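Quick start: what a row looks like.
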Amino acid sequence: MSDIVPVRPPVESVNDSSVAVVEWLVNDGDFIEAGAPLVVLETTKTSFDVPAPASGVVWRVAAQGDDVPVDAVLCHIGPDAESTQAAALSRPDRVCSEPPARTSTASEPASMAADDGRACERGRDEPALRIGATPGRAPRFSERAADVAQRLSVDVRAFEGRLLVRERDVLLHAAAHDDRRPAAQVIEPSPGGALSNGAGGHAGVTPVPLPRAKRVEGDQIRAAYSHTIPSSVTVPVPTDGRLFSAEEDGAPGVFAATLIFESARLLSRYPGLNAYYSAGTCYQYGAVNIGYAVDLGLGLKVVVIKEADRKSVRQILDEKQQLIMDYLDESLAPGALSEATFTITDLSATGAVHVQPVLSERQSAVLGVCAPAPGSQIFNLVLRFDHQVADGRSATAFLEELRDRLAGHEQSLPKRITADPPKAEPECALCLRSIDELEETRHFLVRAVAAAGRAEQLVCTVCLQDWYA
């Protein structure tokens, strides 16, 4: 059994508490080489192939179409079919076997300790994972489920007999047992198969199942708002339109890159906006990873610029353009959609003149960028934030500083972006302001060397102040 390798979803690539098995690329008993594609998984953000971690014979635990927790076993890989199948059938929480108890660890409450086994042998038309009842058994809570249960004061004894309790299970239980909520209207099916609204049947409706991504997204948003106190501030920004239409070396999107660049650098001065709240504690992120919402007809994705506060406008522009190309090619890697600490929803290219962006789970702030109203030269920046870790004063100050920085970039555009500049003018390697632009605001360029072996760069005193603030 020591040669049997259990295969689980790659946790570092998944933000969800579960994944969907889209397609198995091998059958039970097939031999697979290490690194070869094994199974296609889907999250709320993307789908991706999972390579085999070892060579050997495959025996599947989860079936195609199953919704599998991220810490569950998808299959086993072993030296031969007999031992591999035996390992798969011996999982303690398969419905055909009686699960043994497991003692709790120092970091895990005894009420949440249980065996780490997975699904039972079943027919292909049955679900891969059955969270069935075993009287007297203490459940095992996922990390997110335990956090939500604590925040919502859910009695964990209500889940006695479960093998694994996920975040969604806790949220559904809390909603069903919250007497403060109004009773939901029951909509009965009509004889024709559609649904009646209970008012004479004049407006029948047809049930349309939501995509899995939308259902999981809804669960995550409910979880985020169940322990936040959302508030928002709006700051108007004057513009003559140059910033929105700017290009750099023929590539559009300078406004978005500038927005990410300046937001990232400001977040180091407003750490409460680059954090999240949990159980009475504010957790501040050490990195500034900016999530940027993209929806170009293939579904909403939030691509992530990692360590954006350490990159120049040009670096961010190039990386964002590549992420959009990957989005259009439907080849985004899971890592490109995870670990965001702050999110930007940019609707400046649409007709939306006001927006209330939605907070993401484990984030304390999201920035919404609106379009100018017809005939207006003003657009709004809207910051939605968690009042438990930030306040209106700091949120407003963040937006006002961001407004002023964007205005400075817009003023510099005619000098920096030309069809055929006659001579390269010295400029900051980070924010791209020219030496003439800096002189107008009594700033200047200095030579800086980041590390041994790297070429010297010109950096303006504005960026240096941000860097060492």
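That is the whole record. The chain has ten helices and 22 strands. Residues 92-136, 179-201, 415-422 have pLDDT under 50 and may be disordered.
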